[in-house]
Design brief:
5 helices; 12 strands; Sig_transdc_resp-reg_C-effctor; 29% helix; Arc Repressor Mutant, subunit A; Rossmann fold; globular; alpha/beta; 5-stranded parallel β-sheet
């Protein structure tokens, strides 16, 4: 996932890169919005007025109406970023994934996910196309210490795959050589 910061200084970028819950995001800094390449998942406008209003943006300012007024606490911005990204809907094959509702939807059929299942799918989507090693999943999703031997990943994955099969959803998860992949 990409977060673009437009305007201000690179200090904000450096601060956000140190936040553990944002480590998997690609955070980029741009002096002005006209030079952004591609389509970031979220744009943070720092003392810059966006040309159009969109759902995937956050405006920070001390001078004009904004989502976050200066001075602000970094945790307030992080919470706002996570909230904005959780409103996002992801397409996985033909399946829609709603992280904020913890659901998968396909042609009117809905699968309700557990907190860990939703967190796992979101982590895989945010790191696509990279396969995620079991050790990283244990650390990031289940908060286990490094070197822990457990079958937690396999058990959760088996239950999630069973939910997909029972609801006639496509199986978009592949576990191979202790790496988990998502097919988007």
């Amino acid at each position: 996932m990409r977060i673009a910061i437009i305007g201000g200084t690179t200090l904000l970028k450096c601060a956000l890169e140190q936040v553990p819950s944002l480590k998997s995001f690609n955070i980029e800094f741009f002096e002005e919005s006209g030079i952004i390449s591609g389509h970031p998942d979220l744009c943070i406008f720092n003392e810059v007025i966006p040309q159009t209003v969109k759902d995937n943006q956050i405006v920070i300012s001390a001078k004009f109406k904004a989502d976050l007024s200066k001075p602000f606490k970094l945790i307030s911005l992080v919470e706002l970023i996570i909230d904005k990204l959780n409103q996002k809907i992801y397409a996985i094959n033909k399946v829609k994934f709603f992280p904020s509702k913890r659901t998968l939807e396909l042609e009117g059929n809905i699968i309700i996910l557990t907190e860990k299942e939703a967190k796992l799918i979101l982590y895989l989507v945010n790191n696509y196309p990279r396969g995620i090693p079991k050790s990283e999943l244990l650390k990031e999703i289940w908060e286990y210490s490094t070197g822990t031997e457990t079958s937690t990943v396999e058990v959760h994955l088996s239950r999630l795959k069973q939910k997909l099969i029972e609801s006639s959803f496509p199986d978009f998860l592949t576990y191979k050589n202790k790496f988990l992949y998502i097919e988007i």
